[in-house]
UniProtKB/TrEMBL annotation:
This is 3-phenylpropionate/trans-cinnamate dioxygenase ferredoxin reductase subunit. PANTHER family: APOPTOSIS-INDUCING FACTOR 1, RIESKE DOMAIN-CONTAINING PROTEIN-RELATED. It comes from Streptomyces demainii. Residues 323-406 form the Reductase C-terminal domain. It comes from the Bacteria. Coiled coil: none annotated. The lineage of its organism: Bacteria, Bacillati, Actinomycetota, Actinomycetes, Kitasatosporales.
Length: 416
């Protein structure tokens, strides 16, 4: 059996980042990065945006060219699935029965699209979107006079709706809640996005429950059946109702997982020398005093950096403010911080057109910023959140006041 100092399972954003950060921290041991997809590790965000296209795009998706792995002595084992991790014998077992030993194990297995238990989800017209193959299959259904029904009006659903419209596709978004992105965005941004999608020709049906998907015309088209009796005929359906952590491997290895692998800030799990990072984890967000899953590239990268530092015995960095972005039509939506515990939403700019920001404040502290085509407001908001300085809500709301002047000076030095 071959042995490595670090074995990483999952060659996505998190797995790739921890491998490269280990070298940046000066780690000199052997590293094996195992991924079940048969291609070089790649960026997932473009799969619902620029790279969701029926035509092959020129932009390479790879996180790094192959030479970077070779230069950094990161061994890649692609197209290989890890079936088991034995934490007593300190080895993993691959699908072909090969065993590989480790001193430290990093689980970075990501998340898988949720498939609701509805009749018809197995039809060939029904898609999910997580990897390059999913994207190619879905994009083949785009084009003028083609009809797409997107089930789920979250970030992924809205991004795909916008991209599909760009190819002339007729798009209907079906959302069970009373508003799109209701779980992940504040009311002002949610209402704005709903109006914007409608203005671009997307049919948005909120408060709508899907009952079944039926195949039609010898399996060439489908009909999405809603509980109010409506039938939406279409050529393709995208299920975009969320993702669940791929924590089964961790569970079989003896980790108690309740909707994700519980980890501390360094990615350490309950088992010594076993780390977990990325979408598969339930992680602390110390600035907000909570533990949650954060499905974002920033979180995956941050956790990877902390885990690499812990493995190398390096001083950990301060936790960063979580942030996320989404591109839809000509909109860039950027969100920093967590809005859940804020008590006041302060709008800066005109929320009926692109170029506004919503600041979520608790007491005199900024807790989150949501910006729509407002990169300066996003950048400064993110800085103010991480500096945890007192701010004036009225100054934040007043576009005539420069944002930096929203900070309340607390100069306590005696006069003169
Ligand atoms: C279409 C799409 C658009 C997105 N857009 C954005 C965005 O705009 N902004 C943003 O911040 N985030 C976005 N995200 C989320 C972001 O991509 C994820 O948060 C990020 O990929 C998480 O990284 P990860 O390494 O944890 O998981 P992944 O990138 O999913 O990587 C996990 C890898 O592990 C592999 N794997 C799983 N089990 C095994 C096993 N047993 N053996 C071997 N390999 C295994 C998987 O196949 C996968 O390749 C998007 C995600 C998707 C799908």
């Amino acid at each position: 059996m071959k042995h490595y100092d670090v074995v990483i399972v999952g060659a996505g954003h998190a797995g790739c980042a921890v491998a490269t950060h280990l070298r940046e921290y000066g780690f000199d041991g052997t590293i094996l990065l195992i991924g079940d997809e048969p291609v070089l590790p790649y960026r997932r965000p473009p799969l619902s945006k620029a790279r969701l296209t029926p035509h092959a795009g020129p932009e390479p998706l790879e996180l790094y060219p192959a030479s970077v792995y070779a230069d950094r002595r990161i061994e890649l084992l692609l197209g290989s699935r890890v079936e088991a991790a034995d934490v007593h014998a300190r080895c993993v077992e691959l699908a072909d029965g090969t065993r590989v030993g480790w001193r430290r194990l990093v689980l970075a297995t990501g998340a898988a699209p949720l498939v609701p238990p509805l009749p018809g989800v197995e039809l060939p017209q029904v898609h999910v979107l997580r990897d390059v193959q999913d994207a190619a299959g879905l994009a083949a259904a785009f084009g003028p006079r083609r009809r797409l029904v997107v089930v789920g009006g979250g970030w992924l659903g809205l991004e795909v709706a916008a991209t599909a419209r760009g190819f002339g596709t007729e798009v209907t978004v079906v959302e069970a809640r009373s508003q799109v992105v209701a779980r992940v965005a504040g009311a002002e941004v949610a209402s704005f996005l709903e109006r914007y999608h409608r203005s671009q020709g997307v049919v948005v049906r909120t408060g709508a429950q899907v009952q079944a998907i039926n195949g039609m015309r010898q399996g060439r088209t489908a009909a999405v059946q809603l509980s109010d009796g409506t039938r939406l005929e279409c050529d393709a359906v995208l299920l975009a109702v969320g993702a669940s952590p791929r924590d089964a491997l961790a569970g079989r290895a003896g980790l108690v997982c309740g909707g994700g692998i519980p980890v501390d800030m360094t990615g350490a799990t309950a088992i010594a020398d076993v780390y977990a990072i990325g979408d598969v984890t339930v992680r602390p967000v110390p600035q907000y005093g909570l533990r949650t899953r954060l499905e974002s590239v920033h979180s995956a990268n941050e956790q990877a950096r902390h885990a690499a530092a812990a493995i190398c015995g390096a001083t950990p960095r301060r936790p960063e403010t979580p942030w996320f972005w989404s591109d839809q039509f000509d909109l860039k939506i950027q969100i920093a911080g967590l809005r859940a515990e804020a008590d006041t939403a302060v709008v800066r700019g005109e929320p009926r057109r692109p170029g506004f920001a919503v600041f979520h404040v608790r007491g005199d502290r900024l807790r989150a910023v949501e910006a729509v085509n407002a990169p300066r407001e996003f950048a400064l908001g993110r800085k103010l959140i991480s500096e945890d300085v007192p701010v004036s809500a009225s100054a934040l709301a007043d576009s005539a006041v420069p944002l930096r002047d929203a900070v309340v000076r607390t100069d306590t030095s005696p006069p003169g």
